[in-house]
TrEMBL record:
Organism phylogeny: Bacteria, Pseudomonadati, Pseudomonadota, Alphaproteobacteria, Hyphomicrobiales
Keywords assigned by UniProt, alphabetized: Membrane, Transmembrane, Transmembrane helix
The protein's name in its UniProt record: Urea transporter
Taxonomy, superkingdom: Bacteria
UniProt KW Cytoplasm keyword: no
Amino acid sequence: MLYLVVVEPLLPLLVGAGLFMLTRSHLIAVGLSALGFGAWGALYFSRLSLDGPLSGALYGLGSEGFTSGLAAFAGSGYVRLIAAEARRLGTERAAIVHAVGIAFAATAFVLLLVTNGSDKVGLGLYLVLLAWSLGAAVATGSFGGVVAMAAFALVAMVHGIWGAALATGSRDAGQAYIAMFYVPPLLVPVLATAAFGRWLGSSLRARRSHERPG
């Protein structure tokens, strides 16, 4: 279960990030990841398909290649975002945003997993996420990093709900993953909050700099 909800989604993301760091090319990172994971999917599903090996292989190649390519692109884009924010904000500020964001995502996943995807826990975590988005944007001036970490946290929350459904043997475990479609609309308030926080932080820092003597 943990392999399905944790390892399998994270592996192409990490591979894409690693390939981009080695090649500095999104195209190569995405292409190699899609080909590699697509080949694995073709081999895996060719053995399981009831319609024959060829049908299963084509399905595995398409589904695994496409989804892994998207995940690899997210990973390579994330590496580029970290580098850009480190240059603009400084290494320390960028590291704080991303470290806290990853820690929050991991915590949210575990909490939803052990509480069987509790709606109250999910709502509380989302409100904390909004508060963190505001505070992080004000304190560091980050926007892209805050939004990226919020998106990562929301995806982790969906996987926590999905994992809880799988662990309890729920017949609706597959439908639990439909919550992934709520991630884009849930990001809209995060975008607004992070944008306001960045503006507020910039205004406060500018005011303090003008108030300094000399």
